[in-house]
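quick one before i forget lol
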Amino acid sequence: MLVFIVRRLFVSALVFLASTVIIFILSTNIRDPLAEARSLPADRQRAAIAEITERMHLDEPVLVRYFLWLKDAVRGDLGVNRDGLSVNSMLEGAFSATLQLVTGAVVIAIVLGITIGVISALRQYTALDQTVTFAAFVFFALPVFWVATLLKQFLAIDFNDWLANPEISPPFIGGISLLVGLGCASLIAGDRPTRIKVFAGATVAMAGLLTYFSLAEWFARPALGPGVIALTAVAGAIAFTMLVGGGLEWKPPLQASLIAAALGTASSIVLDPILDKATLGTILILGGVTLAICVALAWFLGGELYRRAAIPAAVFTGLFTGAVVFTDRMLSSFADYSESVGGRPISTIGPNTPNYEGTFWEHGLDSFGHLALPTLALVLISLASYTRYTRASMLEVMNQDYVRTARAKGLSERAVITRHVLRNGMIPITTLIAYDIGTLIGGAVVTEQVFGWQAMGQLLLGGIEVGDPMPIMAFYLVTGGAIVLFNMIADIAYAFLDPRIRLS
């Protein structure tokens, strides 16, 4: 393994170094950096040209300029741009903005895309599978600038206007309820009468819930409350026990998960004074305490026989319950935040509200309001790729001989899917994830343009517009380096996903 990593590092470094030469030469020939200086009045023209020439070393050959840049870059100094601004400072601000923009989008797209792809493969050729396939092709074909513009109109302007009087019309309630009912019925693998019952129950339940939200004006002052937190935590405990805890027939993992859910629900009431004045450090400390308590709880309740199953079930349940409590606190601060920003909580420009002062929860809502639309735009486009690749990979693996052998040996369907099909089906998806993360770190240029974010994409466009190679090279260092790094991580992950692969 170590030999493989060293060899890959050496080869990647050579390829990366050669590519920087090509990118530098190309970036110096995009546009004349002196074009604007030549358009100045005669009394200022000569001085401006001389200043830019000296700053950018335009009197030197291209290769000499490249080696001057490389010498400074090795020392961590990326130089200055055409206007004399530090490229290091520009890169720092752009990179932090890009991380803020794309991190949530990448995580959501990967988790949702893989989950939907797995479900679609398990329900091959059903109404759910055909619906997912159709939606995936539609989203994959949509131009991102058009999606972003529609989101700004309907989820920002119209939604903000609707919040002034948040009443839900009966036709909207009926339409959403029918869609939810159809979605729930498509997830059931039973016979037609069972699906009809699920459809009717889900439709009625959703209609009742939306009617309550409308009459109580819940969207103006949203909150979950202890009852909803408790029900959600218990549902999470059961779900995580089924997924990673060996199933509901194993009592110790289920007990550990349910106790973790109960402790998390109780903590939302007991820790109310601390949560009112919370900071990021407080949340991290509470998360660490939650993790330690859940591990200890599963360790003692699971015993030697069930410990390996109880620990992940309890930990996931505890962290999930903490996330529900966190969401409840955010929602409880929504009314005050909305009032402080003039009733326009969903923003369309920039990463935050300038000079905004508020509590930790209100600052969180401010970040969410600015991130919601660009994140959703990126998720909708990326989701289609993950869904289709996961479905195709899962279907290919499900037809392999070793999967049929696992079923013939008497393994449960859950064990066959999680231990054999999903694990081996993730190998192609690992490559896609590695490449996607590397490219997204380079910025979402179109999305940044539509939503007014000054991030990595804007750094690249700024360098191209004025013919300045320094910002372009800074952009390429981060993007190219990320692609090389994450592809290496993907290669190493192959050996853990498939023991037949030996990197040595």
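fyi The chain has three domains: 2-89+462-497, 91-164+222-441, 167-216.
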